[in-house]
Amino acid sequence: MRKIAICGAGMTPFGKFPHASIKEIGRQAVWKALLDTRLKPSDIQKVYCGNALSGAITGQEMILGHVIMRAAGLTGIPILTIENACSSGSSAFTEACMAVAGGFYDRVLVLGVEKLTGSNTAHVVKAMSSATDVELEAGYGLIFPSAFALLARKHMEVYGSTSRDLAAISVKNHNNGALNPNAQHKDKYSIDDILNSRMIADPLRLLDCCPISDGAAAVIICPADQAKKYTDQPVYVAASVMTTGQYLQTNDLCSFPVNQRAAQQAYEMAGIGPEDVDLAEVHDCFTVAELLHYEDLGFCAKGEGPKLVREGATELGGRIPVNVSGGLLAKGHPVGATGVAQLVEITSHLRANAGERQVHGAKVGLTLCNGGFMQGEPCVATVNILKR
Amino acid sequence: MRKIAICGAGMTPFGKFPHASIKEIGRQAVWKALLDTRLKPSDIQKVYCGNALSGAITGQEMILGHVIMRAAGLTGIPILTIENACSSGSSAFTEACMAVAGGFYDRVLVLGVEKLTGSNTAHVVKAMSSATDVELEAGYGLIFPSAFALLARKHMEVYGSTSRDLAAISVKNHNNGALNPNAQHKDKYSIDDILNSRMIADPLRLLDCCPISDGAAAVIICPADQAKKYTDQPVYVAASVMTTGQYLQTNDLCSFPVNQRAAQQAYEMAGIGPEDVDLAEVHDCFTVAELLHYEDLGFCAKGEGPKLVREGATELGGRIPVNVSGGLLAKGHPVGATGVAQLVEITSHLRANAGERQVHGAKVGLTLCNGGFMQGEPCVATVNILKR
To answer: DSSP per residue over A21-34, as a string?
Structure first.
């Protein structure tokens, strides 16, 4: 296996761009990633496009990667679209790593892209619910806010976490988003603002939930020993893991076994432990998800997520800053783009160019992206570890 | 790179199964492929699911591979869905080959699956049209029958092919379908039947066009040197190529440069030429497509496709039998399943168990699957070469 580096990374602002087509959004990210390197469009040998919902929302099904790449000027190379719910972009990245590590290609572009606005919100929410089993779960109302509300209630009952702990995660991520020019939400909130926001699925309130977003992010990868040709600041991929839930077991609803498994594989692959991680971008689709991720990733012991929050350990400047980008809650969550945007964020910290939200001295960053949901755990877990 | 073998292959009948869910259809193919080996479900290490239209037709977007694999009893392993229009299944196969050839996994399952019926036909046709650029082409009526009708007219004008030549391809493929228990259409037709069928897009008539179908097909691949553990009849993958159209050039509308390029790469990879191919399964979504494929694959010189037809060279028993399965025209075309079903067909011939339609002594088989369409050529071309 060859070692791999990210030699280029770029993203669009995340937000609501009802008048922009998915082509325009995707093309912007492709060009930003290319401009971050010394590569030309014709140097790219293969493209993985991660997208979840274009068919349902924009009507461009089946050949999305191709129409975006034609718009960006990349043709005549293998292009394919990977669909894996909210992990579409990060699953595309893991596949791309395999293509380079295995020696099949030297310069591969990974695009994550999503366009959700421009349609009515009910339609978007219905489309999003197709990331569960539509016959057995979505149809009975067990869509994402209700599923995560159940998990939150259970964690409160078993481990004594509170709505205030969840609110503190939202406050932190919005504080971070205010420092990120690409974030959808730049407003800061107090704990009380969160606790007084509209109830969505008890105990989750509006500001416990990520928004509906448009946006795209792209990275270009190459063999580690070629990276200096294309960039002065390569970032190395120490681990890239994608795996799937083990749905036939019951679990305690206070952890995601699939995330624990993915993290363990990634730590082994990278030869590090959770104590070596300087910052992490995790999948805070709801505040409670971030809480569970702290425990599943080993940033604290099981049940001690609330303690981590109360100590401020995951704030910018804390022991292990989490979601300094603003996370899904404040940066936004254009579904298929999220996993790639996490990599873009970590890359900027490892290059020490993350501006006001820089995690100083960051040498190791981790991303966790989840996708779909069946029988109490995510369908997909992707964990990447990057090193400078 | 490790050499790869197909150690298991299976498919459902293709046809109209309006009451079967996509889970049931997909699961059947997964189990048929497993039963064709000595493997248990828990031996599979990764799954690639090729699907094009489940979101648009069944509402199960985003995690299709996961819901099918849970139904089939495969969990806890990496699962992802690849969308590449009519090449979704064959693109999934090429990715899977990379995963095994690169040494990342030893036993990988590839499922191609599609469920189109149960919705009204206008909805299905609209969904199918999303395999073109929906903003620039589909919206103006340049959907598949009209696009291929233009190509047919051009080939007739330049090379003197006739509606009778096209009809002869349909007659041949329906004759073959009559021998295939898994074919959707088992009726035989005369040249006059084809020429008298309803006009769809001049000069293409109803029996020049493939039907709307449901179905699934699956193969299991492993390193060549492990294959005998899992099956007594391994079939070897000599080449697996996926590439994309070069849309910025004009072409003559009588050939698909992307297919020529994919075929050339595959022949080089396999170390053979078109004269070494004993049988081929090609993408006859319309009769004229098969005619162009003869020329692009090098089975005859450019413009000599009609001569090949008139000689009967591509019939069962001819010099180079094409679509002995019945092809898309008679076997059916469940979009994402087609590319994998082509591999299942070739596998059965190389194992000498194709029954009445066996190509005797077949040692080398080729598949060509196309997907999508922009600016006069397919978006995706996949060519595989299998050897016994």
So the answer is: -HHHHHHHHHHHHH
In 3-state terms, what secondary structure has residue A7?
Answer: strand
The CB density around residue A73, as the number of other CB atoms within 10 Å, is 15
Q: What is the mean pLDDT of residues B2-7?
A: 98
pLDDT in tens, A291-312: 999 999 999 999 999 999 999 9
Please state, rounded to an integer, the average pLDDT across all residues of chain B: 96
- Same domain? For A97 and A171 the reply is no
Of A216, A85, A86, A381, nearest to B61 (Cα)?
A85
Task: Return the bridge partners of A235, or none.
Answer: A6
Spatial CB neighbours of A44, under 8 Å, sequence gap ≥ 6: A34, A74, A77, A107, A108, A109, A220
Q: What is the ipTM of this complex?
A: 0.96
Distance CA(B302)–CA(B296), nearest Å, equals 7
Give yes or no for residue A250 having a pLDDT over 80: no
Check if B135 contacts A (Cβ < 8 Å).
yes
From chain A, pick out residues whose CB is under 8 angstroms from the CB of B246.
75-76
Q: Is the CB of A382 inside 8 Å of chain B's CB atoms?
A: no
Query: What is the amino acid identity at position A331?
Result: K
What is the signed CA dihedral for B64, B65, B70, B76, rounded to 10 degrees? -130
User: Are A298 and A173 found together in one domain?
Assistant: yes
**How big is the CA angle at A361 (ends A358 and A363), to the nearest 5 degrees?**
105
Joined tokens for residue A275 = 């104590």
Nearest CA in chain B to A382: B78
B361 touches chain A (CB under 8 A): no
Domain count, chain B: 2
**CATH of residue B344:** 3.40.47.10
Instruction: Please compute the mean of the pLDDT values over residues A262-268 and round it to a whole number.
Output: 98
Same domain, yes or no: A249 and A166 = yes
| Segment B176-198 mean pLDDT | 98
pLDDT digits (tens, 9 = 90+) for B332-374: 999 999 999 999 999 999 999 999 999 999 999 999 999 999 8
Contact A371, A86 (CB under 8 A): yes
Q: Which residue of B has its CA nearest to A134?
A: B60
Could A242 and B78 be called an inter-chain contact, meaning their C-beta atoms sit closer than 8 Å?
yes
Does B338 contact chain A (CB < 8 Å)? no
Distances (CA, A) of B291 to A264, B266, B300, B382: 53, 20, 10, 17
pLDDT at B11 over 80: yes
A283 and A382 within one domain: yes
Stated pTM of the model = 0.97
Same domain, yes or no, for A227 and A268?
A: no
How big is chain A by its Cα radius of gyration, in Å?
A: 19
Range of the domain at B336: 130-210+240-387
Q: Which residue of B has its CA nearest to A258?
A: B76
